[in-house]
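Progress narrative, work stream C.
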Amino acid sequence: MIEKVQSLSKWARDIGVYRGTLKRWLAADLAIVLPRVSKGCKVLIRERDIEVVLRKRTARSDWSLLRGKKTA
């Protein structure tokens, strides 16, 4: 199975937080320090890293909503 990866900005938009907020959460919770990149370049973040951060930061996360699946 291929793991979903997206840019930091896209993940931030998807979960409804500022890009800087998500970047701080990744650094604090997973010790992921994102490298500086030149304009136009992107650093891709794995979905599992976002899931870990959100589980620590939110009381209830419904990942099926983020993935676009409807729950019964």
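Work stream C, second folded protein:
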Amino acid sequence: MKPAQLLFEDGTSFLGTVFSEGKPCVSEVVFNTAMSGYQEVITDPSYAGQMVLMTYPLIGSYGINKDDIESRGLFLDALLVKEYIDFPSNFRSEKSLKTYLQENNVWGIEGLDTRAITRYIREKGAQKALLTTDLSNMETLLKQLQEAPGMVGKNLADTVTCEAPYVWQTLEKPLFKVAVIDCGVKYNILRWLSQRGCECHVFPSYVKPESLLDAQFNGIFVSNGPGDPEVVTQTIETMKVVLGKKPLFGICLGHQLMGLALGGKTYKLPFGHHGANHPVKNLLTGHVEITSQNHGFCIDMNSLNANEVEVTHLNLNDNTVEGIRHVGLKAFSVQYHPEAGPGPHDSLYLFDDFIALMKQHS
């Protein structure tokens, strides 16, 4: 197999071998601690512009199937693993992970010391890396890497969003009609809303507020997505207009955009939260939820108006904001992924909270 190197900005490099070849890339490297669910991870649009390193050592063992896909395609730049398994054993498997990555022109690299890379990122913080099969000419490669733009300032939501509005699943007698702002929405979010009787009308991230204030919509949902939240300006402006006029619920990037629309600020985390086992405390109930997470930015709790915005959830690993709600407006959001895919279902009650808000409003 062809050798490959993962080269970081400070000159540190890690060697592996190619099992799926993709397009040349300079991307941010993040590690994901989930022990299963690699298919849902690689089809999550929130990973656009990133290389994903799986800390679990064996990846590929149960293949790929059509039911666990979380978006219309693959948006990550590379999948980095310790050991790739090319002989999947699962009755649901329809193709190998290698075949799926090759079909989508995405790098797959194995043989990497994933523990060492994870420790390196934890110590140095998330940073750009260049993935290449060129093992020489280090000076030129480093210059190319250092001149490439980083994650801060990138509006990636507008690159992964849908091209035109659509209805996720037409319901014969919907209980509610929900306008979904697609910043990189995961299908499992739409599935859970549909199961609760919500007909989801999905709009691009740059939708204007007039389209969402149509009388037919009972509520507005703002999805997860990739990149720097501060530059997703059209979505922020739209949220400012609709706040207070319709019940509003945001997840992940939608949560960060909620904070910005309410006058707060965001900042980049040292290496982000990516995995399916993050403890979050619900400050309203005192309960601790084990959550699925995938984000690199966070709301600055000191930037929020404490008289108007209440922090509802905290991350017990680093005390960062995981949930907020507006005291007077029917608006709330969480940083983590209650829909899971992959991950635990501890937080599914949040979809019921959204339903309750729409019932109150109607």
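The chain has a mean pLDDT of 96. No further action is required on this item.
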